[in-house]
Amino acid sequence: MIRRRNPGLLRQARLAGPMPWVIAIMIAITVMAAAAGLALSNLADNARAEIEGGLTVQIVEAAPAERDRQAEVALALLTNREEVAEARRVSDAELAALLEPWLGAQPVAEEDAIPIPAMIDVRLRGPATPRQLADLRTALAADAPAARIDAQAGWLTPVFDAIASLQWLAAGLVVLLAATSAAAVWLAARSALGTNRETIEIVHLLGGTDAQIARIFQRSVGIDAAVGGLAGLALGLAATVLLGRQFAQLGSGMVTGGGLGPSDWALLAAIPLGGVVLATLTARATVLSSLRRIL
Amino acid sequence: MPPFASPRVSGEGSIVQFDNVGLRYGTDREVLSDICFTLYPGSFYFLTGASGAGKTSLLRLLYLAQRPSRGVIRMFGTDLITEPRHRLPAFRRRIGVVFQDFRLVPHLSAFDNVALPLRVSGVPESEIRKPVADMLEWVGLDQRSEARPASLSGGEQQRVAIARAVIARPEVLVADEPTGNVDPELALKLLRLFEALNRLGTTVVVATHDLHLLRKVPESLIMRLDRGRLSDPTGALRYPPRPIERATEAVDV
Ligand SMILES: Nc1ncnc2c1ncn2[C@@H]1O[C@H](COP(=O)(O)OP(=O)(O)O)[C@@H](O)[C@H]1O
Ligand SMILES: [Mg+2]
């Protein structure tokens, strides 16, 4: 005989009350925290890939002719080195454009202009190591004594540290929220158990197994969690999309690197699924441990 | 087992055996002490005693709601004291219980309450509708099958409770004061119901403090509880005077 599943021993053993709402809010906040964490992670990855092989060489020399000479020497020297993928002199026009917001428009060649260092943008074949930096410094010291070399990653380290801290914060929030959700579900399952104690005892005395009784509650808690979870997901995603748009409007190059990819969205959509699993397992554990106390 | 051993003394062929059973709630004194008796399949037993004598406590041991504090309980040929907890549900399904307070599930209809033991046993839904409808008709509640317990009278609730207790054809039927709150006429009708089941082979144990009932079932055996002790002056419970023949033929029905 094929064992067909019954429609349920107790059709309407629902968990009334605030359960779905609590879960919806939890899931919404979890989705937002996770989205923030993922966006920060993407942003850090993109930024790091872009700059970790980048060096900036400045020729800090007041006399324009000498500055130009040393810049050409340094450029030639750098271009010939094996570890350098690309070296490019930042043109005076570009520099002027970069500095305009701070210094105002000024004629580049005029003698009384504020001296601006010449800049060479260097891209290495791999990430810049302190060792390579030291080598390059030595190589440049003789012919271009005014050259100063900085790794771009170096002065961005505090930014990366801050992003990493934020990522940890987001991860911590997600963990805390999961724990709080579990506690909320646990409390809800316990109170449902209390109000249904009579029913549970009856089914138990009629020969219902622990698994059968747990299933009744698992199912209703699971449904509540699914309803709440979907509502929370919708809320969380809406907030994430809105925030994302606002950041995009800032137009900053860094923020565009912080967008969410398809796999990120899939991960966010899976959060309510995790919520349902968590709720179901918690309800099961609660019912089983309470049943074990009666014979 | 040696061939010369008296089968009834050894409890062979019995369905329930209590040996030196004691029960205490928490750290209080024992509410049941030195309980020894043997029940044989197909027999009809009355459990009598004053209020507070321990009838409900003894029945709770019998329908596996509770483990005793000491002693041995064997049922269906199995030592239930050493039986692990997860195997007890299967035994409970072989026992029908009419609780003193009915214990109907409040949010289920009369039909679903009666169907509950079948659903617990995993009977397919297609094999539930007819037996439950028949059973409700048998107890005269076919018109009330969709009613919730709260909208049923005390007597109707009692009949739902009885229908639920017998729907799965239990081998043992335990009823705790089933005629407690009903008029004498209905009490007699319910008793006839139990007798009918008994004739189909079910071992029946009815707790009551109504001594009039005892005379209505002449072939019944009587267990008397007095302040937690079972009085068995004639030894009829431990050593039944005669084999119960009616039962053996009824089992084949
Ligand atoms: N759950 C319990 N906890 C503590 N004492 C109980 C409990 N149930 C019954 N008793 C006590 O056990 C004794 C027997 O009770 P009970 O079995 O209900 O007797 P009866 O059914 O014959 O009236 C009484 O003294 C009662 O107070
Ligand atoms: Mg009682």
Question: Can you tag this structure with a few keywords?
Answer:
heterodimer, A: 295 residues, alpha+beta, 2 domains, 4 strands, 69% helix, B: 253 residues, alpha/beta, Rossmann fold, six-stranded mixed β-sheet, 22% strand, disordered N terminus, disordered C terminus, binds adenosine-5'-diphosphate, binds magnesium ion
- Classify the beta-strand content of chain B into a percent band: 15-25%
Give the structural class of chain A: alpha+beta
Strand content of chain A: 5-15%
How many distinct domains of chain A? 2
CATH topology of the domain at 9-86 and 203-253 in chain B: Rossmann fold
Order of helices and strands of chain B: HEEEHEEHEHHHEHEHEEH
Report on the structure:
The complex is a heterodimer of chains A (295) and B (253). Chain A has a four-stranded antiparallel beta sheet with strand order 2-3-1-4. Chain A is elongated and about 100 Å long. Helices cover 69% and strands 8% of the residues of chain A. The two termini of chain A are 31 Å apart. Chain A is of the alpha+beta class and 295 residues long. Chain A contains nine helices and four strands. Chain B has a domain at 9-86 and 203-253: Rossmann fold (3-Layer(aba) Sandwich), CATH 3.40.50.300. Residues 1-9 and 243-253 of chain B have low confidence and may be disordered. The A-B interface holds A 1, 3-4, 6-7, 9-13, 198-199, 201-203, 205-210, 212, 292, 295 and B 63-67, 85-86, 88-93, 95, 97, 103-108, 112, 116-117, 119-122, 124-125, 164. The site of adenosine-5'-diphosphate has 10 residues of chain B, from helix 2.
